[in-house]
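#struct-pred

JT: dropping the chains for the assembly here, can someone run the whole complex?
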Amino acid sequence: DVKVTQSSRYLVKRTGEKVFLECVQDMDHENMFWYRQDPGLGLRLIYFSYDVKMKEKGDIPEGYSVSREKKERFSLILESASTNQTSMYLCASSFVRLAGAFTDTQYFGPGTRLTVL
Amino acid sequence: TQLLEQSPQFLSIQEGENLTVYCNSSSVFSSLQWYRQEPGEGPVLLVTVVTGGEVKKLKRLTFQFGDARKDSSLHITAAQPGDTGLYLCAGAAYYFGNEKLTFGTGTRLTIIP
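RK: done, full complex below.
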């Protein structure tokens, strides 16, 4: 069965802290994604990666960075957390159908609800 | 960034009723996906439509892709409490040589027993 796991379901951090969100997939997928989900805004893409050590900015990368040292693991880093980064963070993965295509079925983790105080 | 507007944003109806959710954009998409997200879980893909005018059925759910590939609808017949959840559409389009997904704003559906 397909599995994407995220390190925490709930996280509370203080303003200015460095925050790491971890995501692991067991499907040998090349593509991995980080989204944030806010009411009325749907899912917005923060960063994605199509291979180990490769990353691309999504629509809202400001204030975030990512790391992909191994194929199965994709980390989202908040260098200095701020209150406007309080949100639900979703990780997803997909296989590569065609080079440059990132629209195949995405398998999502359960999400991490981050609160920054 | 292309925008996908969904309507309504919230919908609460009685079990057994029919409903339609809309997903609209001014942009053309190469394909469109519908996901359902239940509380505490990530979204799960329901269907992908690729051809303008295409209609796909999944039991009581009917998905249609607009002729111009700018919009889509989801119709549920005889809604059941198990249909409760957040429904998200997602359109695929090319940005600078890469085909990417843009998610809609979401429709939160509640079916009252």
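JT: nice. Chain A touches chain B through 25 residues (CB under 8 Å). Chain A has a mean pLDDT of 91.
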